[in-house]
Amino acid sequence: MDLRVESGDLLSQLLSASVRRQEVVMGNIANVNTPGYTRRMVRFEEAVRKALESGRDPTTVAPEIELDLVTPARADGNNTSLELEMHALRENKLLYDSYAAILTAKYNLIRVSLENSR
What burial class does residue 72 get, using C-beta atoms within 10 Å of its C-beta: 0-12 exposed, 13-18 middle, 19+ buried? Predict the structure, then answer.
């Protein structure tokens, strides 16, 4: 396996998972007042970590959307809160910005290496 290709692929997957998480959180916000709505979450980074720990190829892991069955529901059966979703948005933005910065740095290193090899 070419680790250089894998790391780029994995970073791209992390960015995609972050975009998917943003969509899911926005859906949760849109349904904050929908009776009976169950909050959704995207799980990805933990699955990648487990794949790496077990020696599996982390690029084969896909983001999964799960129902949040832990957060208590209000009287109307909805377990989504605007405060919780705003926290999720902030956390997701930090993740996305970190992944994008790492990917940018990686490609800048490649660019500089190619320019210096001429």
Answer: exposed
